[in-house]
Every structure is written in structure tokens, then in C-alpha cells.
């Protein structure tokens, strides 16, 4: 309207009189137009669910000259409660956020205004309405059953979404009405944002998201890609950190346009950061690391990272990502920038769980509450760009927003809130004085989450034990997808899709199962433990204390890996067993799981023997030629030898009766194999 707001802090106290004064001024030129219907509503916190034709139709059906919005709560003077006319059904109290009426009657009401801009508009209208004579003379009433106006304050539980064909409406279940003007008064702004994700045609089942392609930024039309500061936060011991850092390095975005800020709070991860720095220090535009020696809190570190972008006029975007986010989509950064929102994050979830990086709603105390659409968004049954009250772990913020709306430095520290909760609350409840004159008002910044693409996943850090040499090996239960990506052979699935396995000897099957990394880390773990058995017959580790055919080995139990190894057998060996030994259903259980070390000096070979198993697996953990010479396995019954084992490939063969076998001599170097006697 061309004026500064002088109507007071209406979010927290009385005020709003300036609206009446402005309406009074506007009505002076319209007062004589008897057939003109005037609609006056608050502008910043409402949604129109229908058009003018429906509004006019419902207004005329009301058969009054003036209709005010109604609500179940009285404001601002509760002492006036008894003066209100009683109603059998419906909302009893006036709300000034919605008024509709014929121009002459509206003019007669507002012409009585002679107060100040910061006086209360609702109290002004209330006193006129409560005057029985004026109420009758001006033919006024309230929209008791929310036919036109729906005030959400105190009525959120009455309201739900009604999905029609190609359109979504708000339905009041108390009165079975479809209100047109939906007003997020009081502390219902976040619920209004939720409704705005659908109403009236933002999203529906037939067409999906109608506004997702609005105002897109086409990066191909820019002369140069925007500059992005990537803030990386390692706040707790995190599994698969080298893989996380590698994914940053492989993002499909010009690396000279990326500046990297890393806050590492864990001494354990300094070796990983050092390796990453050495690999990428000359790749990115700049690279800054703040380590645990700085003793920064999470909030302080995040403030520092964001402030680097805020202070740099050339920083177009700030991309914050925590170490527990695995971005599997290399296009993530481009896709977020192209969506062209002030604050936006990609949806990431924990594999197989409903845990994600956003909340669809907040409880009364400001913590998690599940929105009606949360599960569908997480499972991508509803796809779009969603206005939400809270996000964490990974998000993109425009640099211009940091230098304007979010220009203060301390957004991540607020009371006792976690840093991300503090940021989101500060963004939602951002105070901007420039629009409000001398009195501050709240004008938040919308935050969005997009699930239009599959961006990646969250990993669990809760039970990460760093007491081992290669700690990620123990993550098969907690983070099975990342474990599989790191430790299972890249061609493993082709066993089932392309019959990718061999049978070098009768009923001896040979197939890829472990990655190079898995083989190396298992060997490293065993050598770090170091207590090799020496290949002696006396063995206290087994029942009876005597091993007939001993090997120089370390049991999986000795390094605390037996439970994980048995799970590996059930998940990745059992399916192969069913494929090659059709009709046999393995229990996937083994008492003996161990790594054998062959050297010419300690134990070069293993004499002929049967295994105490229904079937045995034997996985080569290093390479013939580069790591050792000789070795292999000979099956006596078939006079068949396999002398060139492949790293990461497993033999699978029957254990008892038919497959007498021996380990061929290792003539040079050190040979490692992992063995399990399955279904003993």
C-alpha cells in the first residue's frame, strides 16, 4: 500500500488499526456503489482455495449485508464473551481477518474509525458487531460454519485436505464445509504452509506438482556457473567417511566454482581429512579445514562456515552438508540451484526406514510431529517441492539471502536447541524491522525440501565403534547399503542376472563376492590383531582343544567379527548356494570362520583333508603373482586343481565325503584366504 507498517506487533499483542484506516480511505470513493461487494482480508497469511464466483455465491446465500470471519477463540478482550449472541452451532466470535459485504455497508462501518494505527482493529469491529442496534441496522453476521472463511487458530483439528479430481480443497469436518479463504492466524502459520503445498492446485494425484517448474534457473543459459561454498561438518565419528568425501569430489559441478570449508570435530578422522586434502587441494577454488584443536561447538562451527559465504560478495550459494549424508546423485547441486528457492534441501532418508532430514510438522513445544503426508513424501509416493518447518543435514541457501534476510551471524545458537533446529526457527521467525517501522514484525523465510529426484541417503552414526583397525567392516547391520557398496564385489549381482560364475572342477563353484577393499581391510585387521595360531595341533580355541588338520589362522571370533561374518554368509553366500545347489536350503551357519595365512616359512601348504561342513567357502584375499607365488587347491577325487585364485572370488564346494582336497604349496610371499565351514 506504499506505507510503512505502523499497526503494532500483531503477532504478539493488539494492533492492526492501520488496516482499518487504509480501508476507510479506500471506501470513500466506493461508498455509493450499492451492488459492489467488497472483500477485505489479511494478506500475508492466507490462501484462496476458490475463486470470486464461489465467494460471491456463498456470500449471497448468507443473505446478509456484511459477513465477518468467525473463530472459536475470543480476542483481544475476553470480558466481552457474554455480550456475544449465543449460537446453537458454529464459531461464536468475530475475527477481523476476513470481511465481505456491500460497499455502502462496509463504508458505514469503517467510517466510525477515529483511533490510532496501533490500536486493535478486531476490537473495533467487535464493539460495532456487539451493538445489537448496529448489528441489525447494518445486517451483520458471522460466518459461523466457515462457509467462506476458515480461521485455523484453535481449529487445526477440524481441518483436513479433500482431494478432488485435479484440485484440492480444505474441508472443515465439523461443519462439512469447503471454506474459500483459509487464514493462518495465530500460531498456525506452519500448518497454513502445509495446506499451501496442496491448495488449491499446488499438488494433486492426477497432475502431481503444478508449480515445481515455475521460476526454474536454467544453468545452461548462464555465462558462468554460480560460486558455491560447500560447508562440510564432521561432528561425530562417522562410518564410510572416505566414501562421503569422494562423493563430494565427484559432484557434477565445476570444481573451480566450489570453495570448501571443513569442520572436523573428531581426532579419529584427521587421517581421512588429510588424505582428502592431499587429493583435492588443487582441485577446488579454495580449501579450509578447522580441526578439533579449535574446540568449536557445532553451532560456532556452522556459524563460521555460513559467515564465510555471507562476507564474500561473490558467494552465490552456501551448501551445507553433514558427514552422514551420502549423495549418490552427482547432479544434486545443480538440481538444487535450478529449483531457485531461497532455502532448499534434497530429501535423504535412512535406507529402509522413515527417518529423514526433514519434519513435516512441529509439536506445540517446537519439536517433531508427523504431518499427514510425511510418509508419502519420504517414500516418494508424493513427489514435489514442499514447504516445511524443519530440515537438517544438507541444504542450499542463496548467498543473497545470507546478506539480506539472514544477515546476522549467530543463527545456529539459540537457547538449548540443536544447531539445525536453531537455524530453522530463526529462519521461520526471522524479525525484519524495515517493513514494520519502529516496531519489529516476523516475516520468515520459507524452507523447502525436494524429493523430485533420488538424491541419496542418510547413514547411521549411532553405534559406530572406532576401536578396530578398519571400523567400517562392522557396519553390515547398521548401514547395510553402504557396507555392500564398499565391500561386495561389483560383479556380484551378475551371478544371478548373467550367470556370472564358473565351475572349474565338478561341484566346485567359483564366483566374485568381496571387493578389493574388503579383502585388503580383512587382511589388515588380522595382521593388526597379530595373534596367528602357528598351525599347531593343540588349539584351545576349538572344542576338544585339538585340530587334526591345523592352519596358521585367526578366527573371526577373536577379532569380534563372527556375528558380522555369519550375517555376510546369510546375505551373500546363501543366495549363491541356492542357485548352484538347487533344492538345498542352507541355514547359513558356521562354527569355524577364519582367515588362513600361508607363507613358505610358517605354513606353505595344507595336507589332504575333508572339511567338517556341508559345504565350504574359500575366498582369496590377495593376488597371485604380485603378493605370492604358488598356492591354489587340488581336489583329489577329480584330479582337478585350481592354481590361479582371483582376489575377492570364492570357491564353494561340498565339505564331507566327495571333495577331499589339499592346499597347494605357497612358494614365495604371503597368501591369505578366508574360510567358513558352513552347516557343520
UniProtKB/TrEMBL annotation:
Superkingdom to which the source organism belongs: Eukaryota
Keywords: Dioxygenase, Endoplasmic reticulum, Glycoprotein, Iron, Membrane, Metal-binding, Oxidoreductase, Signal, Vitamin C
Fe2OG dioxygenase domain segment(s): 589-680
UniProt entry tagged with the keyword Chaperone: no
Subcellular location field: Endoplasmic reticulum membrane; Rough endoplasmic reticulum
Transmembrane residue ranges: none
InterPro entries xrefs: Collagen_mod_GT25, GT_PLOD, IPNS-like_FE2OG_OXY, Nucleotide-diphossugar_trans, Oxoglu/Fe-dep_dioxygenase_dom, Pro_4_hyd_alph, Procol_lys_dOase
Protein name: procollagen-lysine 5-dioxygenase
Originating organism: Oryzias sinensis (Chinese medaka)
Amino acid at each position: 500500500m506504499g506505507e510503512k507498517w505502523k499497526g503494532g506487533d500483531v503477532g504478539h499483542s493488539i494492533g492492526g488499526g492501520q488496516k482499518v484506516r487504509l480501508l476507510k480511505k479506500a471506501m470513500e470513493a466506493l461508498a455509493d456503489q450499492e451492488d459492489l461487494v467488497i472483500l477485505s482480508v489479511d494478506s500475508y497469511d492466507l490462501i484462496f482455495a476458490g475463486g470470486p464466483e464461489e465467494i460471491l455465491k456463498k456470500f449471497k446465500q448468507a443473505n446478509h449485508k456484511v459477513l465477518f470471519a468467525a473463530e472459536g477463540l475470543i480476542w483481544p478482550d475476553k470480558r466481552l464473551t457474554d455480550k456475544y449472541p449465543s449460537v446453537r452451532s458454529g464459531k461464536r466470535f468475530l475475527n477481523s481477518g476476513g470481511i465481505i459485504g456491500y460497499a455502502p455497508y462496509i463504508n458505514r462501518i469503517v467510517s466510525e474509525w477515529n483511533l490510532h494505527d496501533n490500536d486493535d482493529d478486531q476490537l473495533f469491529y467487535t464493539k460495532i458487531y456487539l451493538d445489537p442496534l448496529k448489528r441489525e441496522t447494518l445486517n451483520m453476521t458471522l460466518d459461523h460454519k466457515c462457509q467462506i472463511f476458515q480461521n485455523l487458530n484453535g481449529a487445526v483439528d477440524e481441518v483436513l485436505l479433500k482431494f478432488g479430481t485435479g484440485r484440492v480443497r480444505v474441508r472443515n469436518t465439523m461443519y462439512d464445509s469447503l471454506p474459500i479463504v483459509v487464514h493462518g492466524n495465530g500460531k498456525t502459520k506452519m500448518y497454513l504452509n502445509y495446506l499451501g503445498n496442496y491448495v488449491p492446485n499446488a499438488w494433486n494425484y492426477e497432475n502431481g506438482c503444478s508449480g515445481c517448474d515455475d521460476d526454474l534457473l536454467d544453468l545452461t543459459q548462464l555465462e558462468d556457473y554460480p560460486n558455491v561454498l560447500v560447508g562440510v561438518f564432521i561432528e561425530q565419528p562417522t562410518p564410510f567417511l572416505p566414501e562421503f568425501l569422494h562423493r563430494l569430489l565427484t559432484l557434477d559441478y565445476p570444481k573451480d566454482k566450489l570453495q570448501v570449508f571443513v569442520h572436523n570435530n573428531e581426532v579419529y578422522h584427521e587421517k581421512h581429512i588429510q588424505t582428502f586434502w592431499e587429493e583435492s587441494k588443487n582441485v577446488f577454488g579454495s580449501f579450509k579445514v578447522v580441526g578439533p584443536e579449535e574446540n568449536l561447538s557445532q553451532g560456532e562451527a556452522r556459524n563460521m562456515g555460513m559467515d564465510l559465504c555471507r562476507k564474500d560478495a561473490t558467494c552465490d550459494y552456501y551448501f551445507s552438508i553433514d558427514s552422514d549424508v551420502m549423495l549418490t546423485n552427482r547432479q544434486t547441486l545443480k538440481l538444487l540451484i535450478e529449483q531457485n528457492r531461497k532455502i532448499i534441501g534434497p530429501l535423504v532418508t535412512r535406507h529402509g526406514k522413515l527417518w529423514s532430514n526433514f519434519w513435516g510438522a512441529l509439536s506445540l513445544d517446537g519439536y517433531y510431529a508427523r504431518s499427514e503426508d510425511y510418509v508419502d513424501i519420504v517414500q516418494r509416493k508424493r513427489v514435489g517441492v514442499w514447504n516445511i518447518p524443519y530440515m537438517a543435514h544438507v541444504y542450499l541457501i542463496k548467498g543473497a539471502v545470507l546478506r539480506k534476510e539472514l544477515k546476522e551471524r549467530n543463527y545456529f545458537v539459540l537457547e538449548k536447541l540443536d544447531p539445525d533446529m536453531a537455524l530453522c526457527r530463526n529462519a521461520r521467525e526471522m524479525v525484519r524491522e524495515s517493513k514494520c517501522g519502529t516496531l519489529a514484525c516476523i516475516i520468515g523465510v520459507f524452507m523447502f525440501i525436494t524429493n523430485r529426484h533420488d538424491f541419496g541417503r542418510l547413514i547411521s552414526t549411532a553405534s559406530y565403534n572406532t576401536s578396530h583397525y578398519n571400523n567400517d567392516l562392522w557396519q553390515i547391520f547398521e548401514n547395510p547399503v553402504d557396507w555392500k557398496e564398499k565391500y561386495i564385489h561389483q560383479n556380484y549381482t551378475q551371478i544371478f542376472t548373467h550367470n556370472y560364475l564358473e565351475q572349474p572342477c565338478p561341484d566346485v563353484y567359483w564366483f566374485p563376492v568381496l571387493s578389493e577393499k574388503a579383502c585388503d581391510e580383512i587382511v589388515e585387521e588380522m595382521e593388526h590383531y597379530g595373534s596367528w595360531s602357528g598351525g599347531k595341533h593343540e588349539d584351545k580355541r576349538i572344542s576338544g582343544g585339538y585340530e587334526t588338520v591345523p592352519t596358521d589362522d585367526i578366527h573371526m571370533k577373536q577379532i569380534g567379527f563372527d556375528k558380522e561374518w555369519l550375517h555376510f554368509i546369510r546375505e551373500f553366500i546363501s543366495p549363491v548356494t541356492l542357485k548352484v545347489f538347487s533344492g538345498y536350503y542352507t541355514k547359513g551357519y558356521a562354527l569355524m570362520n577364519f582367515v588362513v595365512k600361508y607363507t613358505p616359512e610358517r605354513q606353505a601348504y595344507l595336507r589332504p583333508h575333508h572339511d567338517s561342513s556341508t559345504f565350504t567357502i574359500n575366498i582369496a584375499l590377495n593376488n597371485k603373482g604380485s603378493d605370492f607365488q604358488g598356492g591354489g587347491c587340488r581336489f583329489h577325487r577329480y584330479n582337478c586343481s585350481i592354481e590361479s585364485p582371483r582376489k575377492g572370488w570364492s570357491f564353494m564346494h561340498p565339505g564331507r565325503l566327495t571333495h577331499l582336497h589339499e592346499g597347494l604349496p605357497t612358494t614365495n610371499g604371503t597368501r591369505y584366504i578366508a574360510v567358513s565351514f558352513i552347516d557343520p
